[in-house]
């Protein structure tokens, strides 16, 4: 056997093995392939690009949950039940909003007792929580309560508040359209305890149909304050999950206007807020009917779109 020839074959094999080792190692260490492959390597640029693509495709997509502190548990649990989705993502919790008493909160109990309201309209789980804090005033002689959607209905029922009506689609516009008046000769009265930042859709649309609506701004939604650690973590985020326009605004304020992430929204209201704040339409995902199940689908779609970018 020609020793010099065998040595050349041996050296070449070591070079190829070393090149493959460093490519595999780079995907583990998260370091660029070109930093480890010698310029004299026999590996082609196409092979290097393929290895880089494989490494990138196996990298988890970072998804953040943005509801207020303590309110992300239900969504996180639902995501964790989805084995296929969990294999593709890393989850961060980065609350973008917090809640505080609104200017009309102190008037809620007395207003509940002030007259026999035909309906009390509740349009979010947080509004349900606020109503529950004052419900003892009328618990023995309860009023008729309508909820915007299933999540709000559940929050009310958990507080032992009966719900008389839920619209077919969980939006204020649909609630205003589908709620039937109860009187023919006088206006149907509605008490609307709301967030100070809630849009006027419900009250305007109901009043246009002849309802008499009294709105109380019983709570306020404010932007959560992030420290340096949260701001640094936000740079890793590729998909942000939004359940309200306030969460969208909180994200933008804390990230200096970052609209590059994919937005997975619980419904059209949050999606519209993203659109109005400059997100690319192709980066906004939301279900036709707001709800937890559809939200999971939106997160899956946003994750897939992020991976294919």
From TrEMBL:
Pathway(s) where this gene product acts: Porphyrin-containing compound metabolism; protoporphyrin-IX biosynthesis; coproporphyrinogen-III from 5-aminolevulinate: step 3/4
GO molecular function (one): uroporphyrinogen-III synthase activity
Catalysed reaction, written as an equation: hydroxymethylbilane = uroporphyrinogen III + H2O
Primary role: Catalyzes cyclization of the linear tetrapyrrole, hydroxymethylbilane, to the macrocyclic uroporphyrinogen III.
Domain Tetrapyrrole biosynthesis uroporphyrinogen III synthase: 89-296
Originating organism: Pseudo-nitzschia multistriata
EC category: lyase
Protein name, entry field: Uroporphyrinogen-III synthase
Enzyme nomenclature, EC number: 4.2.1.75
InterPro entries linked: 4pyrrol_syn_uPrphyn_synt_sf (IPR036108), 4pyrrol_synth_uPrphyn_synth (IPR003754), UROS/Hem4 (IPR039793)
Gene Ontology BP, a term: uroporphyrinogen III biosynthetic process
Family: Belongs to the uroporphyrinogen-III synthase family.
Transmembrane segments: 12-37
UniProt keywords, alphabetically: Lyase, Membrane, Porphyrin biosynthesis, Transmembrane, Transmembrane helix
